[in-house]
Amino acid sequence: MKSSKSFVAFAILSMFAAGFAFAAAGKAGKAGKCCAEAAKDGKACAHKCCVEAAKGGKYCEKCGGSGEMKKETKK
Ligand SMILES: [Zn+2]
Ligand SMILES: [Zn+2]
């Protein structure tokens, strides 16, 4: 049965695709401790190094952050 085989292949492929989507979401950057504290208060971290990193769309690695910031639509 050729058609059932291709269906299984499609099912596996879509599972992989979903897995990738999850992995991509989980791979979102991590804020440094100082930045996380500031974010809790609804503020941006005032550290110069963090501000510079934020400009580049990344979390400050000097302060323990890593990866890229989530892109949020600014008002
Ligand atoms: Zn910071
Ligand atoms: Zn910093």
Largest sheet: none
What order do the helices and strands follow? HHH
Tell me which ligands are bound: zinc ion
What structural class do the secondary elements suggest? mainly alpha
Total count of helical runs of at least 4 residues = 3
Percent of sequence in beta strands:
under 5%
Rg is 19 Å
List the uncertain runs: none
| Form type | rod-shaped
When the domains are counted, the total is 2
Output mean pLDDT: 84
How many individual β-strands? 0
* CA(first)-CA(last) distance: 55 Å
- Indicate the percent of residues in helices: 40-55%
What does this entry show, briefly?
The chain contains three helices and no strands. It is mainly α and 75 residues long.
Q: What topology does this entry show?
A:
Layout: H1 2-26, H2 33-40, H3 48-55
This protein binds zinc ion (2 copies).
Explain this structure.
The longest helix has 25 residues, at 2-26. It is rod-shaped, with a radius of gyration of 19 Å. The chain is an all-alpha fold. It contains 3 helices and no strands. It has 2 domains: 1-28; 31-75, no CATH class. The mean pLDDT is 84. It is 55% helix and 0% strand. It binds zinc ion (ZN) (2 copies). The site of one zinc ion has 8 residues, from helix 2.
